[in-house]
Every structure is written in structure tokens, then in C-alpha cells.
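Researcher: Let's run the pair from yesterday's discussion. Sequence first, then C-alpha cells, for each.
Model: Starting with the first of the pair.
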Amino acid sequence: MPTSQGIDMRDKLVELGVTHEFTLYENEGHGWTGANGIDTWNKLKIFIQTHLE
């Protein structure tokens, strides 16, 4: 998704008071791998454990 759409979504979630975490990985596309992919999965796991369990 374009960076602007991610930022717009983040702003709307803030406006609505929705618990979320926003991380922008510059120059990444869909299906990223490597360090950014690992970071995403680690953050997702922590988020789910913190907010959904």
C-alpha cells in the first residue's frame, strides 16, 4: 500500500482510539523478508499476546 494510505489509516485509528501499532518500513513492498519481515512478525506476536490473549 502506498505510504500515504498507511499514514491515513494510522491517523484514523488514532482518531477513533483504536489500539494499534504503526511501523513504517521505507521502500518495502508486499511480501517483505529479511530483518524487516522478522521485525514485523515479532511485533505482531507481542501485540497479539498483549492485546488479544
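Model: Moving on to the second of the pair.
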Amino acid sequence: MAELQLGVIEARFADMIWEREPVTSSELVKLAAEAFTWKRTTTHTVLKRLCDKGLFENNKGTVTSLISRPKFYSMQSRKFVEDAFDGSLPAFIAAFTNNRRLTPEEADRIRKMIDEAEDEERGESS
């Protein structure tokens, strides 16, 4: 799949769709007019751009996602780690926790995620 990059406004518009899907394009025109003061044509242009990127589908005026919000943001996070830290998750965590202590709850949650990832790697299920 091609790299999906969204600008700030595109991301806010995509979030609007994910929060309401399935949603009609006419409802999106109303929502975007209120949220962004967009005209109908602007809404349709941005919607078409997001559909062309493979994020959403507009089928007879009903808009649904082809990629879920969690999957999209997971892809963006992985891309960020790849670009900024040469794909090194330990380097990302080191940078993220620099000058900041993890709470015991955060540390426990990270340990659990690591354990689950290792179990998946070994083909075990919880």
C-alpha cells in the first residue's frame, strides 16, 4: 500500500468520518461547513482525495472506511519510528522516556505488550 500522509485538516476530516461511519456525503458537507466553514465542493474534493488514497470509500453517497482509525494510526506510528529512529523501537522508547519516568502502570503495560509480542512470535496464544 502506498504511504498515507494526511495534513492536519485532512486528519481532522478523516476523524470526523471514522466517528460517524457509515455517513452520507451530504451529512459530511453539513458537518464540514460547521467545523471548517467549507463549501460543498471543498468537502467533496477532500473526500475524493481521501478515497483516492485508499482510506475511505464513497459508494453511492455513503462513506465508509477501508482502513480503520486504529490501523491507520498504527501505520503512521510505525512510519514515524522507521523514519525518525531507523526502525529501532528501543531508540524510540529511549527518546520518548528521556527526562521522564514511567509510572508503574505504564511499565507494567509495556512489559505485557512485550510478553504478548514474544508469545505471538513463538506462535503461542494467551
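Researcher: Give me one sentence on the second I can quote.
Model: Strands lie at 23-24, 56-59, 62-65.
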